[in-house]
Description:
Blueprint: H1 2-28, H2 32-42, E1 46-53, E2 61-65, E3 69-74, E4 79-83, E5 87-93, E6 98-107, E7 110-118, H3 124-137
Antiparallel strand pairs: 1-7, 2-3, 3-4, 5-6, 6-7
Amino acid sequence: IPNTQNNYCMMKKIVLFLLLSAGLVTAQAQTAAETLEWLKAKAAEVDNSYIYSTTVDGGNRKIEITSDHIKVYSDNGASTTGTWHTIKEIKPFADAYGIKIILEGTYEGNQRYIRFDIRPSSIRDRYIKALKHMAVLKGARLIDENLF
């Protein structure tokens, strides 16, 4: 009988440890509001001369990030908007600075996308991670790069 009681106590400790560990991981996750604030703050690092999208490739280009969408637009009236839940994939693009966001749907037969460079390169991977986090929080079903 003492062996059964020891097993019960050990199981109780393990379950308590797992619950506390899960609580710490959950407590450290950023909210959508915190993620949006960080994305907006770092958006100042976006190189406006390297903003492109399905429809934006000229003019004075800018990026807009809100709790509903990410949008690139130019002073010539062209724009591409992706609501967070319509994002399919977010990945590094071309060089150390580029980020490409693949959106649902097509425009004139081409996949919709938003592409921009963010400098310095040291924050690009963190920016991608934050974009993915925001998209998932807002309902996006991103392609899992680790499947195969």
